[in-house]
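Figure 2 data, in text form.
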Amino acid sequence: MMPRLSIVIVSFNARAHLVNCLESLRAAPPATSHAIVVVDNASTDGSADAAREFPSVRVIAMARNAGFAAANNAGIRGSSGDLVLLLNSDTIVPPRAIDRLVDRLLIDTAVGIAGPRLVDADGRVELSFGPMISPLNEARQKMIGRLYDARVGPLVRRVERETRREQFVDWVSGACLLVRRSAAESAGLLDERFFLYTEDVDFCHAVRALGYRVLFTPSAEIVHLRGRSRATAPEAVNAAYRRSQIAFYEKHHPRWARLLKLYLCVRGKVDGCR
C-alpha cells in the first residue's frame, strides 16, 4: 500500500547527524503511514552507506553535489506519498511531532505548507518563519535574530511569544517543511537555481501563488541542530548564501538586485566584481 507521507532527507557529508536523525525516526516512528527517502549529495564520509543500514530507508545517491533544492526535488520525484516532509539531516524528531504537523495541515484544506516550531539542542527557539524576503524585511529579520542571540531581554520575550503562537506566514524553514504533493508539483517543485538557502522562501511563495496558505504551528516541535555546515565550511557556505541571495533578488526584486550586487562587491562579499 502506498504510504500517506514521504519523508525526504537530504544529506551532504553529515553522517553522524544523519544517523541520529534516522535513529530518532526509528525509535518513535510516525503513526502516519510513511516512507523515508535519503538523498545523498555525493558525500565522501559514508553517509549513504550509513543510511542503507536502516532497512526502512531508501537511498537515492546523487552523482554530484547538486545542491539542496535539486536533491529535495530528486527525493520528491522518487517518492509517492500525497504528503511530503522535507527534513534536514541535522534534526532530531521527538515522538508524535510529525503526526501533530500532519494533523494540523490536514485539518484545513486551504493550507498547502506547514512548518513546526524549531528549537536547538538546548531548547532555544529558532525564528524559523517570516515575511517575504525584501531589503527591509531581510534587515529586520537579521536584526531580530542577532538581538535574540545576544539574549536582549525584550527581544527574547518577543521571539518566545511569537513562536508560541500559531499563525499564517509567508514562509517556513525548509529544515522541516510539510507540503501537499499536489501543491508542490503544481508549483514546479523547488527552484534549482538556489543551491543553498532561500529556496524555502521561494518555494513557499510559489505555493502561496497557487492560492494556498502557509502555516506555522507550535503544536509540533522539532530539534534542529543548525549551523553544522557553516561551522565546518564557513567560507563555502557564506558564498553559497550570497549566490542564492542574488538569485532571489534577481527573480523577485530585479530592481534591487543590481544595488545588492554593488553593495556586496563594495564589502568584498562576492567575487567577479570587476
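Caption note: The longest strand covers residues 213-224.
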